[in-house]
Structure formats: C-alpha cells, structure tokens
Hints:
Blueprint: H1 13-25, H2 30-46, H3 53-77
Helix pairs in contact: 1-2, 1-3
InterPro entries: Complex1_LYR_dom, Complex1_LYR_LYRM9, Complex_I_LYR
Organism: Microcebus murinus
Protein name: LYR motif-containing protein 9
Amino acid sequence: MAPLPGAELVQRxxxxxxxxxxxxxxxxxxxxxxxYKHAVRQSFRVHSDEDNPERIQQIIKRAIEDADWIMxxxxxxx
Length: 78
C-alpha cells in the first residue's frame, strides 16, 4: 500500500523528490512536516551524485517503502 496514489509512477529522482514532499504535506503537525521535509531534502542532496541506474531504482524503492511506513505510523496515531 503506497502512502499516496502515484507511487507506482515514480521512476526518476525528481519525481521521487516531489512525491515525498507531497507525502510530507499530509503529516499531522507542522513540526513533523518540517522534520521530514528537511530529511527528504538532505537525502536528495546526499544522493545527487548517484549515476548508477540500478542503485537509483533501489533508492527510489526504499524511499517509497519508508514513506509508506511513516504515513501509516502517523495515521495510526490519529
């Protein structure tokens, strides 16, 4: 189960970045949203020099799984 519709369409790093920021908008409080936005931006910068297509797909898959876990975590708390 993906946190937002469209997870299956994410193929490129920029699409992932936008997708994760949209996920952040659905988090419950401003502090939590800002925390995860910062984490997304920082992770994007860390991996910006990655040029191996297989590794990029691994990163995208893991990021979507992590976003799913985070969205479910906060959904259960509300």
